[in-house]
Amino acid sequence: MARRLQSVSRSRKRIHILLVDDHPLVRERLAELINREPDLVVCAEAEDRHQAIETIKSHRPDLVIVDITLKNSDGVELIKDIHSRWPGLLMLVVSMHDESLYAERVLRAGARGYITKQEATRSILRAIRRVLEGQIFLSEKIASQIIGRLTDAGSATTPEPVQSLADRELQVFELTGRGLNTRQIATHLHIGVKTVETYRHRIREKLKLEQPTDLLRFAIAWTHQAQS
Prior knowledge:
The protein is an alpha/beta fold.
């Protein structure tokens, strides 16, 4: 790849890992698994974007493990922010969200791998080591799908309509499905109310939904299915 990864410091006895997740029990479980390894250690934890940025500044971790949904912030935007500030910092996403929809997005944002929380207990250490070696970690299913899209562009398979949404549009769509109103979404994403309304209009156009109520019903149904 064109971008050369920053090599992990060999001067430390253990690789330092930052956990960014808004669920304390998830952080506790991941830390328990990681700290068992003689060469790995969780050096710090964070639950939102602000804490993550400040912790990276103070602790200088070798690897950041981040969820997509964070307290008062969005994980994909955090990944983009980290990648722009520290382009050599390795990132791995551990999330409950639909891998087929988010894996390619987080790779484009700057992460080096994606693993679902359901798989994390069995495969988190393998994923960490793959990323530390400078490789990409994805499930075989998703890796095959991405390769298929690259090699068979324009083939017979039609992508799910939601996949046509841009990253910010997808964030607004998902928050709509979680029951947040326009002002709440604006606060959560730190954008204006009118900007949210513009995104919702674009989403309706892309998904061919006539009325705002159609968008609400579709978003709630999709979010429920994605989380089940």
